[in-house]
Design a protein that fits this description.
Blueprint (H helix, E strand, L loop, with lengths): L6 H16 L32 E8 L6 H13 L3 E8 L2 H10 L6 E3 L6 H8 L7 H6 L1 E2 L2 E5 L25 E13 H7 L7 H10 L7 E3 L2 E3 L2 E3 L10 H12 L1 H8 L9 H10 L15 H9 L3 E7 L1 H5 L11 E3 L12 E9 L8 H11 L2 H11 L8 H4 L6 H7 L1 H4 L1 E3 L14 H7 L2 H6 L4 H21 L2
Parallel strand pairs: 1-2, 1-3, 9-10, 12-13
Antiparallel strand pairs: 4-5, 6-10, 6-11, 6-12, 7-8
Helix pairs in contact: 2-14, 8-9, 8-10
């Protein structure tokens, strides 16, 4: 197996051998142990190899909740299908720290599996137009296992048209979809079925459920003690998880045009009746939150919800894998409901999580990177991602192809797409030099004060309108 994850490791080993030789080499020298991800490169071939046939693809991967085993498998399969090709991978949960020094000196990988929000340099690269245009690739490349079908037609409809993948608003595609999974209010479907409860459709129905929790028969036993459940919690100090609730709620109240106005920083995007109704509803959530919510991190709040202390928590399909070893209420089974609407009869939306694949414009081997991306978009990859990561690739029919390999919880969660309209949310790029992280402004800096009464709905809306005005001024100044 060839897993050349860090080229620098080979250089380090070579340097150590040189030092040993300089010191006389009078004994065994064992290099320090490294993590599995930094496995030593495969041994050099014993037979002569035509160097013209050798190709090296360098890739960089953000290691998130889906882990790294899927990438090992993908690399092994690609190398096996392409003799003479070696894939060298850098993978890290702190990929920005790993890559930033390299990119600063012009050393960019050929292929990246890094979400824009996971690394500041990604935003800078968008601003500087440093990604390869993939429009023609998607429009005119046949799927490897679907002769006659262009790659564009294999991707879930609506993804390639969004600003998450066409960031400049002109239809040109610069990012390729990796995975897609529903996000929203996660609940224990076993509990709801046992109690005969139906997940709320409207916000009012959610608030009304609180009265049911006064009944001791609906209490939960945690550590031998009977506790009253709460209707809602979230990842307190990581309020960004609330995006899975906020954006679908706004879409339900004001349509996708309300979302597009926010994505593009339009004047009045926040100060309109539909959006205002949603912000005012969030301001009502405080009394219904699980005790201690605002001081918890994501694992703590998620663990409490799984123990039964809260009926709902905002999250996505990665929740299953991320908390695989956490204790839980007996019979606990994950499911996701479409987000609650302001009024009965309004459309219900399901925000989709996504991750992005890209090829830097300065890649040394862009054609090989495209081959790798084409190889990615196959049924075999769908199955591998389900087996290795319990996730769903962003291709049409992926759930059906992977049905026999996904866990029951993930399969249940993917059913949310059947109950609500698929949607994405991605902010348009902001000018270089403007030190703002929009999701942080929307959620981390303001959402907890809004829900706990420290900030009024009017103040929240005015803050966001002022912020968007500042962004528009910078956009205008940038030309």
């Amino acid at each position: 197996m060839k897993r050349r994850l860090f080229v620098s490791l080979a250089l380090l080993l070579a340097l150590m051998l040189v030092l040993v030789a300089c010191n006389g080499g009078g004994g065994d020298v064992t290099p320090a142990e490294t993590p599995e991800a930094q496995a030593t490169p495969a041994p050099a071939p014993t037979e002569p190899v035509d160097e013209e046939e050798e190709r090296v693809l360098s890739i960089a991967v953000f290691e998130g909740g889906y882990g790294r085993e899927f990438w090992y498998d993908l690399i092994d399969r690609f190398e096996a299908a392409n003799p003479g090709v070696t894939v060298e991978m850098q993978i890290s949960s702190d990929i920005e720290m790993v890559l930033s020094p390299q990119i600063a000196v012009g050393e960019v990988p050929d292929f990246m599996a890094i979400q824009v929000q996971h690394a500041g340099f990604m935003t800078a690269m968008i601003q500087n137009h440093e990604f390869l245009d993939l429009t023609d690739f998607f429009n005119n490349t046949e799927a490897l296992d679907r002769p006659g079908v262009m790659l564009r037609d294999r991707v879930i409809p609506g993804m390639l048209e969004s600003t998450a993948f066409a960031p400049y608003g002109d239809g040109r595609i610069f990012f390729a979809p990796f995975n897609a999974g529903p996000m929203g209010p996660v609940y224990n479907i076993t509990l709801f079925e046992e109690k005969g409860w139906t997940p709320p459709v409207t916000w009012e129905e959610l608030f009304e459920m609180d009265a049911l929790l006064d009944d001791p028969d609906n209490f939960v036993t945690v550590g031998g003690n009977q506790e009253r459940r709460a209707i809602f919690t979230y990842q307190g100090i990581h309020a960004g998880y609330l995006e899975s609730i906020l954006w679908p709620a706004i879409a339900g109240a004001g349509g996708m045009e309300a979302i597009r106005a926010i994505e593009n920083y339009e004047e009045g995007a926040w100060d309109n009746p539909a959006v205002r109704s949603v912000i005012e509803t969030f301001a009502r959530l405080g009394p219904y939150l699980m005790d201690g919510t605002v001081g918890l991190d994501h694992t703590q709040s998620q663990a409490d919800m799984m123990l039964g202390r809260s009926l709902f928590i905002p999250n996505g399909v990665w929740f299953v894998n991320e908390m695989a070893d956490a204790p839980r209420e007996e019979g606990f089974e994950f499911a996701i409901a479409p987000v609650f609407t302001m009024q009965a009869g309004q459309p219900r939306f399901v925000l989709s999580s996504y991750e992005q694949l890209s090829i830097p414009a300065a890649a040394q081997n862009p054609d090989l990177a495209k081959e790798f991306l084409r190889f990615f978009y196959t049924d075999e990859t769908i199955v591998s991602f389900a087996q290795q990561a319990d996730g769903s690739v962003a291709l049409l029919g992926a759930r059906e192809v992977a049905a026999n390999y996904l866990s029951p919880s993930v399969y249940n969660m993917l059913r949310a797409y059947d109950e609500g309209t698929f949607m994405l949310m991605s902010f348009a790029p902001i000018p270089e030099g403007l030190p703002l992280h929009i999701p942080q402004e929307v959620f981390d800096n303001r959402m907890t004060p809004l829900m706990t009464g420290a900030m009024s709905a009017d103040a929240y809306i005015q803050d966001m309108e002022n912020l968007f005005a500042e962004i528009r001024e910078h956009i205008a100044a940038a030309g």
